[in-house]
């Protein structure tokens, strides 16, 4: 057993307490945990128990910070991992926090991917969406399953093509630029080819 010799308010964090044993810093606890376990100067406590209490306190802090972040913008599991890591939390505690967030449905990579596709499928092709989802840490299988439900984007590619070619002549050079533009948006060749054919048909009708 060890004796808690001092408890200090953490500098700049009034809700946090630094715990000292025999004059040495051993842990930081939130004030609710201090109250819950009746932590006070002069308390006899074994280090294993204090370690468990400290983990609980850190877990509460990590969970609270995670909720605050998610309340502003939805996050993927990978983004949350990177965020908690940047805050200095250890891998074991990060895993514990993410598991809890998933259990309470604050994190759901599958739903995140579906929502993302619903928003951006009118702006980008599958290739660009796939890249963006992967950059956010969405597992490849979830990306594949989500994009498999996405209908053909030929109409979207055609709308982009019409806007791009408005006021431009139907030249080989402009068509090549259009193809590159659509490829940059993430459309596949079949969709690009369909858009080019549509533009050529519209231009032909205008001439006639």
Short description:
By secondary structure, the protein is α+β, with helices and mostly antiparallel strands. Helices cover 62% and strands 13% of the residues. The chain folds into three domains: 2-103, Arc Repressor Mutant, subunit A (Orthogonal Bundle), CATH 1.10.10; 109-148, no CATH class; 154-207.
What does this structure look like?
- The mean pLDDT is 90.
- The protein is α+β, with helices and mostly antiparallel strands.
- The protein folds into 3 domains: 2-103, Orthogonal Bundle (Arc Repressor Mutant, subunit A); 109-148, no CATH class; 154-207.
- Helix 2 (47-72) crosses helix 4, helix 3 (77-86) runs antiparallel to helix 4 and helix 8 (154-165) crosses helix 10.
- The protein has a 4-stranded antiparallel beta sheet with strand order 3-2-1-4.
- The protein starts with a strand and ends with a helix.
- The radius of gyration is 28 Å and the shape is rod-shaped.
- It contains 10 helices and 4 strands.
Name the features.
208 residues, alpha+beta, Arc Repressor Mutant, subunit A, 3 domains, 10 helices
Helix content: 55-70%
Shape: rod-shaped
Q: CATH class of the largest domain, please?
A: Mainly Alpha
Q: Which consecutive residue ranges, at least 5 long each, have pLDDT under 50?
A: none
Instruction: Note the gap between the termini.
Output: 95 Å
Give the biggest sheet: 4 strands, antiparallel
Could you tell me the number of beta strands?
Answer: 4
CATH architecture of the largest domain: Orthogonal Bundle
Order of helices and strands: EEEHEHHHHHHHHH
Provide mean pLDDT, rounded. 90
Rg, Å, rounded: 28 Å
CATH topology of the largest domain: Arc Repressor Mutant, subunit A
Q: Can you identify the CATH superfamily of the largest domain?
A: Winged helix-like DNA-binding domain superfamily/Winged helix DNA-binding domain
Strand order of the largest sheet: 3-2-1-4
Structural class: alpha+beta
Quaternary state reads single chain
* Overall tally of domains: 3
Beta-strand share of residues? 5-15%
Q: What is the number of helical segments per DSSP (H or I, 4+ residues)?
A: 10
């Amino acid at each position: 057993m060890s004796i808690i010799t001092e408890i200090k308010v953490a500098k700049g964090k009034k809700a946090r307490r630094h715990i000292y044993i025999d004059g040495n810093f051993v842990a930081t606890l939130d004030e609710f945990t201090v109250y819950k376990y009746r932590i006070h100067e002069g308390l006899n406590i074994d280090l294993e128990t204090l370690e468990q209490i400290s983990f609980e306190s850190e877990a509460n802090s990590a969970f609270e910070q995670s909720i605050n972040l998610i309340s502003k913008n939805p996050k993927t599991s990978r983004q949350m991992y990177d965020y908690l890591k940047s805050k200095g939390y250890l891998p074991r505690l990060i895993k514990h926090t993410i598991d809890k967030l998933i259990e309470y449905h604050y994190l759901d990579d599958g739903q995140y991917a579906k929502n993302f596709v619903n928003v951006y499928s009118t702006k980008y092709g599958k290739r660009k969406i796939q890249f963006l989802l992967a950059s956010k840490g969405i597992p490849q299988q979830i990306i594949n399953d989500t994009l498999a439900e996405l209908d053909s984007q030929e109409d979207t590619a055609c709308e982009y093509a019409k806007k791009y070619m408005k006021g431009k002549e139907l030249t080989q050079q402009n068509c090549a630029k259009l193809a590159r533009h659509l490829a940059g948006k993430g459309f596949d060749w079949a969709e690009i080819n369909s858009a080019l054919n549509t533009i050529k048909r519209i231009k032909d009708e205008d001439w006639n």
